[in-house]
Amino acid sequence: MYDFEYHKPGSLADAVKLLSADPDARPISGGQTLLPALKHRLNKPTSVVDLSGIAELRGIKREGNKLVIGALAKHVEVATSPEVKAAIPALAQMAGTIGDTQVRNRGTIGGSVANNDPAADYPSAVLGLNATIVTDKRRIAADDFFQGMFTTALEPGELLVAIEFPIPEKAGYAKMRNPASRYVMAGAFVAKTGGAVRVAINGAGPGVFRQADMEKALTANWSPDAVAGVTQPADGLNGDIHGSAEYRAHLVTVMAKRAIAAAG
Amino acid sequence: MNVVTPFEGIGASVKRKEDLRFLSGRGQYTDDINRPGQTYAAILRSPHAHGRITSIDTAAAAAMPGVVAIFTGADMPDLGGIPCGWQIHNKDGTPMAEPMHPVLAVGKVRFVGDAVAAVIAETRAQAKDAAEAIQVEYEVLPAVATLEAALAPGASLVHDDVAGNICYDWHIGDKAVNEAAFIKAAKVVEFDLVNNRLVPNAMEPRAAIGDYDPTTEDYTLYTTSQNPHVIRLLMGAFVLHLPEHKLRVVAPDVGGGFGSKIFHYAEEAIVTWAAGRVKRPVKWTAERTESFITDAHGRDHVTKARLAMDADGKFLALHVRTLANMGAYLSTFATSVPTYLYATLLSGVYATPTVYAEVKAVFTNTVPVDAYRGAGRPEATFLLERLVDVAAAETGMDRVEIRRRNFIPADAFPYQTPVALQYDSGDYQATLDQALEAAGWAGFEARRAEAKARGRLRGIGISTYVEACGIAPSAVVGSLGARAGLYEVGTIRVHPTGSVTVLTGTHSHGQGHETTFAQLVTDRLGVPLAQVDVVHGDTAKIPFGMGTYGSRSLAVGGSAMVKAMDKIVAKARRIAAHLMEASVEDVEFDRGTFRVAGTDKTRSWAEIALTAYVPHNYPIEELEPGLDETAFYDPKNFTYPGGCHICEVEIEPETGITTVVNFTAVDDVGRVINPMIVEGQVQGGVAQGIGQALLESCVYDSEGQLVSASFMDYQMPRANDLPMVSVATHTTLCTHNPLGVKGCGEVGAIGSPPAVINAVVDALKEYGVRHIEMPATAAKIWGIINASRPAMAAE
């Protein structure tokens, strides 16, 4: 990796100050994306701002009918949290399947969501559960937050602080892993929250997206059979050496069925 | 009092002596070694698959912090090219095309990863920074990334002096006899297939340290090699022009090779030569990406085959035409792999009367291709065992019966094949029977039905194979074009207290030689295992040796040790005879005790050893002191392990995901020294075979960029991709080496891929699948199922 300066601010305000002062500074949370990029010399930040010392970014708590997860919550913490398991078991289950043990012990929910890798897990939960992204400046609805491959509504210097998840009646997640990287080839997060159905698809396309036809079908009939006949168009989906867009489109339906079955 | 010690000799599953060191992080790998004053090398590599270098400007890079020196191909006019160790001749008798392989590119780059410049700096990071600052201008040329592209009319030439990109056009077998046999055939099965290209991916990346002592002008190379003496020979004699006594090559602990660390690589020559230039040690360690684009790849064949059969399903003739990818340059043993390690195995376990094989080796703008676990024999086995299954399907014969009907019978050994080899022993019916029993072949249809009820497609596949290893008789391989002898060397050094150091010219990089070889000594000399150490991997310590590959270490290296132990025992008996005042003929030796036959007069091993080094009462006029013997062993033939692998898979039709649910291997590896180590070797080989069959896909795009250049895209087998492998052995002894051993390092990777694919094809039989190319990925299988869905629905 190239040389960079290292900062470890103790407060959100200090972190924002450091990041705002230098457009080439990069925040680092669990480092599961940034560190490999640095090691491959694919990224040349002037400084790296380590968020791990900021207490305001920590914590998992139930607040009324919401689950609030701090940006620094590691995957392993979400997977094993009694609050998450009780409120949104599908979210805990998802967190327990991200990457491998090492990744889950380092990677954070804030880092994953802010990075918005199309093959990441969490964005589909955030979108499927209609969560709200809380930053140091504002609150952003999930529908407005994800803006395509590695792109979000976050502005330069703006930091993701926490994610507020409404607690659903039912939720389920299923994915097919990329055979090599074990990232998501195609995944579906389905949820019924306050009577409203959402289906968020990750892995298959250039960014996480909602599957409106499936949402309609499930609103009428919440069962795996309801989506079995819904065809995901292959247009615009990813195709690569691991599978064609047609294969991924097919997997979207398969994973949606499994997610509904898992949700019960 | 008798101390009962556990049996540690031949046949004991002794725990591996080396594992405490490895498992506790105390191994000494090349990158763990640091020399005083060490510098670091970074290699600037070509980003283009094919191009002419129009200029290289190193001025800015040379001025960067910490830079000690920068070298390009222009700085090395006196160096030789990286040599190829095996010369193949064309059908017309002319020698193969053997283009220059410069240490650093001169004039042209020929694959992505080709070495263009070497930066020597105080730190690794400084070396990399400076390498990035070197300005190279290329005139990018059209690349030929596949066999098809390289052979197309008017294709771009990888080497300007190699017409048609053809390295050689070779054949073996009697063409006229072969053609005549096809005319008489009742049935001819035609079949095309690909053997997929693989990236070896040893856990330890390659590394090398060059060291130079200006006072003695001695060079030392520490390197991740399977054969340090071969590297000394190739690099010293052909590239750097250094005599052996001025060049020491050390291959310390090495973390996996699988063939990829046999070869002499440019980086070894670069660091050694550069150390002499900068008068400081120079270290280079590959990053994983460099491993992907510079370690020699494996396999990469495209083959057309025809099998002639009579009306009873007996094989009459086999004709094979194979294209073999050599990559951009000839790696050390590249040329031998698709010829003498492949086509000579095309008789397989079958008594096919005539086999004729034609092999074209082709240059492409890709990483050089060379031996990878099994080297040629997996390609031959995959072809034969798929072809036999296709022949069974097309003649309506049972898959087991067609094999039985064509096996070389157990009483036909020694068996001369029509493609040069003479198998010494084997019993293919017996390994087949044992495997069918162990795998529950007879009860499979019930399991298929049970799986179907769960919505799964279950299939079973079989592979019966033979391979040739324990390489090799020097005169034979010499007559076939090898530029080296392939004997092995062993020294047995008995110390004054009776403990033993074994020096071997083979090299252990995961195989457990330190244990297996010590067991040979324990078994023969009666010295406890704890008092036997095995030393390998250093040309300054070991007299000579040809290294480890081709499952040769035990069959050839172990035999050298036996010969050296014969000399030790002969001398020790003479010392014992002197001490016991008996004639040598009357002295018996059995595991640590010398006895005058028929008496209670004995001498212990330790007494004889001490006497040899403290020769106060000694036949000094007729016998030298000391007990230290070296033997060179040149094998009389290859060895021929064989056996039967049976694989059972389940496919989830909805996703195409294949799960290997059972795998049974019954291998004849000759006498087994350590059953636990054999089992581990077979399991590892099967893991790689399943990797090739289902997972591993090395993909180049049409511009010659390696698309699968990281573990993000290249799928190595993980533990959860693999079943518990049931391993058993069925022994017929090798008839021509003193241990009766055949070798077990490669059988797993050789026998398994066709068993897996045969199982996948069987699982998909209701879809009318004749063949599926490796790797049979989920996406590929789903594509087959999806494409045939309308046809199924129409039925």
From TrEMBL, chain A:
Keyword Transferase: no
Name listed for the protein in its UniProt record: Xanthine dehydrogenase family protein subunit M
Top-level taxon of origin: Bacteria
KW Flavoprotein (keyword) present: yes
Keyword set, alphabetical order: FAD, Flavoprotein, Oxidoreductase
Sequence ranges assigned to domain FAD-binding PCMH-type in this UniProt record: 1-170
A Pfam cross-reference name: FAD_binding_5
InterPro entries named in the record: CO_DH_flav_C, CO_DH_flav_C_dom_sf, Diverse_Substr_Oxidored, FAD-bd_PCMH, FAD-bd_PCMH-like_sf, FAD-bd_PCMH_sub1, FAD-bd_PCMH_sub2, Mopterin_DH_FAD-bd
PANTHER family in alphabetical order: XANTHINE DEHYDROGENASE SUBUNIT C-RELATED
From TrEMBL, chain B:
Pfam families, per database record: Ald_Xan_dh_C (PF01315), MoCoBD_1 (PF02738), MoCoBD_2 (PF20256)
Annotated keywords: Molybdenum, Oxidoreductase
InterPro entries, per the entry: Ald_Oxase/Xan_DH_a/b, Ald_Oxase/Xan_DH_a/b_sf, Ald_Oxase/xanthine_DH-like, AldOxase/xan_DH_MoCoBD1, AldOxase/xan_DH_MoCoBD2, AldOxase/xan_DH_Mopterin-bd_sf
Residue span(s) of domain Aldehyde oxidase/xanthine dehydrogenase a/b hammerhead: 24-142
Annotated PANTHER family: ALDEHYDE OXIDASE 1-RELATED, XANTHINE DEHYDROGENASE
Protein's UniProt name: Xanthine dehydrogenase family protein molybdopterin-binding subunit
Native organism: Belnapia arida
